[in-house]
Structure formats: structure tokens, C-alpha cells
Amino acid sequence: MASSGYRNSIQKGFVRVVDRPLSATSNFRSNTFKSKLHPSTGIRRSSPGSLGGAGASRDDAGVPGRVRVAVRLRPRNAEELVADADFADCVELQPELKRLKLRKNNWDSDTYEFDEVLSEFASQKRVYEVVAKPVVESVLDGYNGTVMAYGQTGTGKTYTLGRLGEEDTSARGIMVRSMEDILADLSPETDSVSVSYLQLYMETIQDLLDPANDNISIVEDPKTGDVSVPGATLVEIRNQKSFMELLRIGEAHRIAANTKLNTESSRSHAILMVQVKRSVMGREAAFSGENDNHSHLDKPFKPYVRKGKLVVVDLAGSERVHKSGSEGHMLEEAKSINLSLSALGKCINALAENSAHVPVRDSKLTRLLKDSFGGTARTSLIVTIGPSPRHRGETASTILFGQRAMKVENMLKIKEEFDYKGLSRRLEIQLDTLIAENERRQKAFEDEVERVTLEAENRISEVETRYADALEKERLKYQMDYMESIKKLEEKLVTNQKTRVSNGYIGDTCSGEATSMSVSEEVSKVEKLLQNEIHLRKKAEEEVNNLRSQLVQFTESEGGGDSDILKLRKILEDEAHQKKKLEEEIMILRNQLLQLTIEANQMRRCSGDAITGLDSLMSQVMHSQLKDAGNGQKVPIGTLFEQVGLQKILSLLESEDANVRIHAVKVVANLAAEEANQERIVEAGGLTSLLTLLRSFEDETVRRVAAGAIANLAMNEANQELIMVQGGISLLSMTATDAEDPQTLRMVAGALANLCGNDKLQKKLRTEGGIKALLGMVRCGHPDVLSQVARGIANFAKCESRASTQGTKTGRSFLIEDGALPWIVQNANSEAPPIRRHIELALCHLAQHEVNAKDMISGGALWELVRISRDCSREDIRSLARRTLTSSPTFRAEMRRLRIEC
Ligand code: ADP
Ligand code: MG
């Protein structure tokens, strides 16, 4: 029955009020709906769970989409034209008002409003456009869609949905037209469409594409609730022709199956399922890699896939619902035939009334159409009716079914998921391309290396040949020159002989013997003359000596009378000398007295009465240090500690009086020279004071003495760390940089050299500039300083080599990093034995660590090592060098290359 409220409102002339506002658009698609289907970006991302399940999609709420219902009136057929000739049609259509009037009798009718009212003149094209096209477009956008025809047998359901229109294309039905639109919209490279065609009869699903497959089950995804028929044949459609062929086969099988089952097609439901799979433009950037250079590998990529499913349902004739059993069917059969259709009616009623329970599971049809009514699909229902008043009852019930269906509200949801397969495929292709590219490059690189190696070898052998040639030429040239010289000499000899003969030296010109004879006679003559000469000279000399001694004797006897005066003069001179000495002594004593007075005052000021008497002792100590050993009054050091107190001595280092400071530092330096005192000096803070003096004094003597004291303290390993802790390395380094006096530098270098031998100080020495300062001191050129520098380098290298062996040092030597190598190489062959020995040792230590080898080769150290291994005077260093060279692969390779044998 019609919705009485609606009907009444029309009849009473009220403003149109319906249960639910109906769309007034001629097209089924609401604009709102369309705009939501096409977001401006065209990119839709699914949440991980959005594999097409209802309620799992990204658009969780979905888009409201009511089931749209159109009514189509079949024209009178031949039989009706005759049989109903005297009667009016049972319905009257008002298509422009989307209304249909169902006559009750000649004077009364009920009015119904539909989403679309299609008269007997409506073309197949128009029917498709208003009923199915919006659904097809939704499917192409990734939604599920349903087009279903409901109506009495013979009213045109199959005509509307399934006509192939082969002879007359204007007669093509919804199935054919839908596929045309789908194929036109898909891109064959990335999208696909597949079709299954099923028949449902007596609650059994049969495959119309493979009739032997006649008991297909419905599978529900437990997570998403999605329904599918995995047992059905799924044929991928590439063109319209193959689809038409498939529809033909399906229809043929439908007829055959119905014959076999002794039934007719009007008693079965035909279901066409069209699955559309489309790739969607994704966020290319996210997959194109970061490097634009690889753009050739990264064409636009579509990582999302939309899977819309169009279901076209040609239902069994609706009259069966009411007439079951009335045409002689077995009861059971009749029940089964009608089960699905009546279940569909119940579901739609329940949905229309918003009932809590919708009996979807009651039949296979309702299970299959779960998503079409009350689900996420966009659904269009076309109800077909005939004009004959004889079937008014059927027509009325069909119209009511349509009216109820219009109240069913679906929530449309896009079926989109991440295309993992596509992505993986694409990445595999990219990976393959990259691997191939990499292999190609690797090959090219290896070829290049081979080519360069070959070229280098060729060049070397060419140079060797040239060198050998040049040597040979040189040798030949010298040989020639030599021969030439011999020849010339011979010629000269002959010329000389000829000259002699012509000068008449020899009587017999032809006899060589005669010539030599005359020469020896000549020689003996000359010898005789010479001896005569010598004899005469000797005699003359004796004569001269004689005369000289006579002269001395004569002079001595002459001066005898003046001897007394001479003696007196000598005594006078001695007296004057003595007096001068005494005056000097007095001066010194006066100075000392003055000094003592000042010191005494100071002491008194600093320490008060407690140290009375100490002062004189202190001065004694100081003077004993200043005076020569023979003159001064030596105080034993031990006594000094006990009597004066170390603290007191150290405090004098900071005295305001420069002289006191100088004396004090000398005392401390002397004390520090003895190992027994060192610990106490350091404990008492002497080291700090000395370090401070080193920096704060401009007086060179103080600096020298302080540096000497520090050098002495630095000999002791325990003090070395203390020196470091108290900033001694940088203080020494600074002094090394600005001191000029070679003796100061020698002390500083000695101190640093001692520190260099401490394994724990390596890093500090480097970071605080110790190595650089050490190297800087070679500017002074004094052999003592150079020797200390060399010792420091050797010590440092030794510690490093130890650390390398223990694995605590991995990188290049700090010595190399700080640029010591050139100096080392330059002085490796120094004239001074201590310098040479230290440097030779340093080279051996450096060479023991493979990581230094390359720098040593390029710095020329390899030659020095080879020389050391051959010529060093010390056997142990020689064999150390040899061992080092043979154990290093880098050195070995270089020596092979240079053809050096060790
Ligand atoms: P149904 O599938 O509902 O049983 P059919 O589609 O088989 O009905 O239609 C029954 C008959 O009516 C067919 O001969 C068909 O050609 C004809 N027919 C149905 N609808 C129309 C129409 N709109 N115009 C012309 N003929 C129609
Ligand atoms: Mg039919």
C-alpha cells in the first residue's frame, strides 16, 4: 500500500510532505555526493584496516546514499492490445512530476512518487542514464554499486538489464552499456575489470560461465564482513566484444540449466558481478627517492588501488512471492524458489522501518546483496510494471516494494587499499635496474683500473728500456773517449820521441835502450849536484847556529848588573796584586752583608720570630750554591731540609726580592737534582712554583734554572703526570716557543723529552702543543738541543708503537700529523751520533705501525730505513729496521716496486 500520509497530503492539497525528503533532481546523482567522490587532490589514502570492509574505510562515516528507485512501464504487448482493448491501463504516469497513479477504479487512484518515472516510451539509453550510469560512475570511483530489477515476469526486467542489442544497438540493455562506460574509462596499463556471472535458483548458486560448477558458496570475511564468491569463474574483460561473448555464453547456459532443472528463467535470479580495479595516483614524491638524478627510474607511481564492484541483479518474477504453489510446484520447491525473494522483501521492510534486526542471513540472495541494501554500495532499483489492469494486484505490490526500497539508506564508502603488490613489483624493478647499473659501473671501473695498470706497466718498461739504452750509449761514449785518449797519448808519445831525436839528445835515434841509458846517466848527474847542494846548506846552517849561541852568551853577561832592580820590581808587583785581591774580597763580603740584612728583614716579615736564626743558615746555603766548591761552605742537602724546612725554601721562590728568588730557585734546582728529594719537593708544591717561575720571569737565569729543575723532576715518572696535571706541558711548550738561550732550550727540550717517554701523556702532549714545541726548538740549531729533541721524538714514537701494539692507538702517528717527519728524515743521517741514534730508533718505531707506512714512503723515510737496515753501526737497531721492513706489506710492496732488496 502506498504511504497513506503522502497520498493524503496530495489529495488534501497540502504542501507536499513526505516521510523523507526526496531528491528533486532528474539525475540520481546529488551534487554533494559527486563532489565528495572527487576530492580536489584525487588522492585518497586508506587507513591500514581499510581493505574494503564496511566501517573500515578511511571515510569512516561514509557518505549517505539512499537507495534510488525508478519505475518503468512496459508498453502493451500484442496480447494485451487485443485482450485489454476495451480497458484503460491500470496506471497513469506523470513522468515530469515523477509520479505514478495506480487506478483503484474508474474514479479513484493512488499516487506514488519515485526517483524516476519511465514511461513506455522511455528509450533504453535514457533508462541506462538515469538508473545505471550514476552507479557505474561510482564504481569507477571505487565504490560498490548495485543495479537491480524487480517486477512481475514479463514486465521487462531482462529487457531492461540484459538485452545485447546486437541487431539494433539502441536496444542495448544496462549490462552492455555499463561495460562500455567502464572500458572507456579504464587505462589498460594500470586498471583491470573482471566479470563473474551467476544464477541463484532454489538457494543454490550456479556458475553461468562454468555450469558444472553448480554449488558455489558465499564466503564472508570475518574481519570486514565483506561477501564474496571465490568459487565463481572470474574472467578478465579486455574489450566489449569479449564481454558480449561472455554474456551470450551466460545466457545460453542459463537457458540450458533451466531446461535441465525443468524450470524457466523467470524463476531464477541472474547476478552479474563486475569487479573494477584501478590504480590511483599516489604521492609520487614519497616513492621517487631523494635523488633527482634517478628520476628516470621513478616514473609516476600509483601505490593505491580502488576496487569497486558492480552487481547487476535480474531477479526472478515477483509474482512468485504471492503465487507460490499455485501453479502446481512441489511445496518444497516453491518455498525455495521464493525464499530469497521474500527474504529480500523482509530485509527491505526492516531497513525501511529502521528495525533493529535485518534478517540478512535468511537467504543466499540477501547475503549476496548485504552491501547493496543497508550497506556501503550505491544502489539503484528499477521496478518494472505492465499496463494490464488484469495484473493490477501484482503491479500494486511491485509499486509498494519500490516505495519501501526508497526508504533504505546506505552509507557509501570507498573501497581503496594500499597497493603493496604494485609497490613491491615496482621496487623490484627499480632494484633490478639499480643492480644492473651498479654492475655496469663496477665493470667499467675494473676495466679502467686494468687499463691504467697496463698503461703504467707499459710506461715503466718503456722508461726502463730507455734508461738501459741511455746507459749503454753513455758507456760506449766513455769507452770511445777512453780509446781516443789512449790514441792521442800514443801519438803524443811518438811526437815527443821524434822531437827528442831531432834535438840531438840521443846519438842513436833508433835505439830505445840507448835512450833510457842516457836518461839514467842524466839523473845520476843531477842527484850528485843536489847532494852537493844539501851538504853546503847544512854547513851554512851550523855556522848560523853557532853565531846565535855566541850572541846569547854575550847578551847575558851584559845584563848581570840590573838583577837587583828586577827583583824589587817583582816584589812590588806582587804586593799590588795582593792588595787588589783583598779589595775584591772586601767588596764581595760587603755585598753579602747587605744581602743578608735584606733577607733577614724579609724573613722576619714573612715568618716572624719563629724563623729567627734560619736566615743565616739559608744565606749560607745559598752562598754555598753560588760559590766555587773550594771557597764556599757546603751545607749537606739532607741537613738543609731538616734545618730550614722545604716549605720555607719554596716560599722564597716567591720572594719579592729578585736576588732571593734567584738564589732560591738555584737551591731548589740543586735539591731537585737528587732523586731522593724530588718527591718531597713536588709534594710541597715546588713544581707549581717552578712552573710559575718559568712563565712569570723575564730573567733568563731564573728561567734556565727553573727549566733545569723541572727537567730534573720530569725524570721521575710519578712527577711527569703531576707536571701534566699542573699545566706543565703547555707552560714548557710556551717557554720552548719564546726562549732564546740555548741552555734554557736544552732544559726545556730535556723536560719535554722526558715527558714524551710516558705512555699516559701521549695525547696531552699532542693536544697541548708539546710535539710542535719540541719540533720548534730545532730552530736554535744547538747540537745539545737537537739531541734532546731527537730523544723526545724517539721516546714518543716508542710509546706510540707500544700503544699501537696494544690496540689503544689506531690512527697515524701524532708525530707525522704534527709534521715531524721531514725533520726526522733530514736528520736521520746526522753527524752527531746521539741525534742519529735517537732518530734511527724513532724511524724504526714509526715503521712498526702499518698505518704510518704510506706517509713514511712519501716522506722519503723508506730510504732511511733501508740505509739503517744496512749501515747502522748498532746491530740491534740494524736488525730492528730489517725486521720492521720485512714485516710491513706496504714497505715490502714499495721495495718490490723500487727493486730494493733488504
Ligand atoms: P521479464 O524479464 O521481466 O520476465 P522480459 O524482459 O522477458 O520480461 O520481457 C517480456 C517481453 O516484453 C519481451 O518480449 C520483451 O521484448 C518485451 N518488453 C519488455 N519491456 C519492453 C519495452 N520497454 N518495450 C518493448 N518491449 C518490451
Ligand atoms: Mg526475465
UniProtKB/TrEMBL annotation:
GO terms for biological process: microtubule-based movement; mitotic spindle assembly; spindle elongation. It is found in: Cytoplasm, Cytoskeleton. Residues 33-60 are annotated as: Disordered. Residues 66-408 form the Kinesin motor domain. One of its GO terms (cellular component) is mitotic spindle. ATP binds at residues 151-158. Keywords: ATP-binding, Coiled coil, Cytoplasm, Cytoskeleton, Microtubule, Motor protein, Nucleotide-binding, Repeat. ARM repeats lie at residues 644-686, 685-728. InterPro entries: ARM-like, ARM-type_fold, Armadillo, KIF11-like, Kinesin_motor_CS, Kinesin_motor_dom, Kinesin_motor_dom_sf, P-loop_NTPase. GO terms for molecular function: ATP binding; microtubule binding; plus-end-directed microtubule motor activity. Its main location: cytoplasm. Residues 435-473, 523-599 form a coiled coil. Interacts (via C-terminus) with NEK5. Belongs to the TRAFAC class myosin-kinesin ATPase superfamily. Kinesin family. Ungrouped subfamily. This is Kinesin-like protein. It comes from Liquidambar formosana. The lineage of its organism: Eukaryota, Viridiplantae, Streptophyta, Embryophyta, Tracheophyta.
